[in-house]
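Quick one, tokens below:
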């Protein structure tokens, strides 16, 4: 095993796997365009650790973890929705479908065809997006809050007339 080194911009899949490289990365969310589009906290950081190895002496694999705190918009109430991500994955990169059949179900299979190199940011972005729910929302019933706020607004807008009515009634009562 090599000592832990910085993950480069381009992953040399077969070379890294043969060397059993362990690489780590530390990125600003703003360095990942597709995450920046949905995150409110683009100045916060994403930490990544990847271990490369060859499965069955031929299939390059990556075992990894991504840690990040990403603040999204809740799709129900549109307020901030903090998400603590601990994404664990085990990826296998095959050249054709039949190669995937030799692997057990713990692997997430990527068919790379003739490709040798991968873009680090793309790979990490894909894994993060896969781990985020399709329509992220608070795990409590945040829609209730919206209804209550609307009620309050409605009451306030009615209030001036009610108050006026009450004063008039009170005045009449005196006479
Ligand atoms: Zn919500």
């Amino acid at each position: 095993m090599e000592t832990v080194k910085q993950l480069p911009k381009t992953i040399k899949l077969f070379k890294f796997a043969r060397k059993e490289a362990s690489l780590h990365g530390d990125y600003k969310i703003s360095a990942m365009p597709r995450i920046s589009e949905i995150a409110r906290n683009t100045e916060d950081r994403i930490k990544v650790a990847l271990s490369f190895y060859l499965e069955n002496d031929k299939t390059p694999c990556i075992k990894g973890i991504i840690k990040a705190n990403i603040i999204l918009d809740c799709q129900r109430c549109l307020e901030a929705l903090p998400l603590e991500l601990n994404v664990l994955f085990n990826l296998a990169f095959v050249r054709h479908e039949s190669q995937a059949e030799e692997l057990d179900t713990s692997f997430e299979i990527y068919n790379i065809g003739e490709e040798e190199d991968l873009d680090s940011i793309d790979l990490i972005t894909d894994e993060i997006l896969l781990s985020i729910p399709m329509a992220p929302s608070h795990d409590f019933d945040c829609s209730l809050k919206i209804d209550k706020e609307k009620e309050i607004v409605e009451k306030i807008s009615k209030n001036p007339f009610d108050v006026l009515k009450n004063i008039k009634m009170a005045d009449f009562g005196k006479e």
